[in-house]
Automatic annotation (TrEMBL):
<feature type="signal peptide">
    <location>
        <begin position="1"/>
        <end position="26"/>
    </location>
</feature>
<keyword id="KW-0732">Signal</keyword>
<protein>
    <recommendedName>
        <fullName>Keratin associated protein</fullName>
    </recommendedName>
</protein>
Amino acid sequence: MNIRVTWRIAAFPLALAGLSVVPAMGCDKVSELQNDVCCRDFTPGADLATVKWGLEGEAELNYGAFMQSVSDFTGAAGAIVADVTSACQAIALDLGADVATITATKPNERAEQWCELAVDALGDATADLSITFQPPSCTVDASVQANCEARCSANVECQLTPAEIVARCDPGQLSGRCEGKCTGSCEGSANLAVHCEGTCQGTCEGTCDGECSATTAGGDCRGECQGTCTGECRGSCSFAAEADVQCNADCSGSCDVQFKAPKCRAELKPPSAECQGSAECSGSCEASASAKASCKEPAVNIEGGAEVEAAIATLKANLPRLLVVAHARGELLLASAEAVVQAGGNLEGAATGSVKAGACLIPATNAITQAVENIQASLTGSASVMAKLEIAPPSP
């Protein structure tokens, strides 16, 4: 894990220390009512939109958005550490490791230990491997952010529409279904082959007007194509200018007709004035959207000799999940974590206006602390496998 990320994670406990001051008054003062008032509503990953926190006006809106961002962030952190653990465990076991070797029970410790075992199991096999992959990408869930912002403004008319997604997204970050001509790229993945007549970042399945890294007995390409791929691409296909191929997945770029189900790969621009709530509430909405971003597993092409077939097979199946974490998802969650902690600091003691709100900061703070540990373990574990495979870290 690079130094920049390490320092960002190291700073979170200091910020959390201030956040934990508020809930100290909660459950101690009302221990006889603990089952009723000590936050049965907060659960990582839960939808808290209908929960009433016992505060008034803007304080209720700000606190509700904050708690939703904590729920979304901690739920995503739990999912990412589970993905890394599962991928590293599968690699280790596929290459002969003993399942009884790992005895840790905490999610973050299991992730790190399984990834260490995966690195050991790979051994010298990695020296004979050639690995290329489509860079993974994540798409921010615009509907999560916009619907949250609508609650911040308390304006029932501030609902997200496809046209508003297009208007609030930088054109270069827009994607969606295109039923006309897509100019740009067609976004497939390891699990979704897309029609292609252009440059394939991934595995080309068809003909390659150039050099192909692997071919079938009949001469068709089934690997990385250094040239124009015509057929299907398990990855992202950038269409040639003269191509007349319809994208059968999300088009990234422009479409000569209106996008259907448009998405934005970045944070949305601020809403109109009548739909804006407080800066604190909007910040929590951005954190929720980042935490709930959807990420595509990248197409991976791995080549090597017959003696490393087992390593190739397990890496093709499991490396995409680790690449998503190391090259895309992990960075989004770090940004979300910073926004969550900042939003918590902006509460300025507002939660003391409600016993329930004050008490709920106890499990929320504990969940944030565990989530940060899960993210750190996920990044450390995936990075150790990347280093073993000599895959360079993403650019800052």
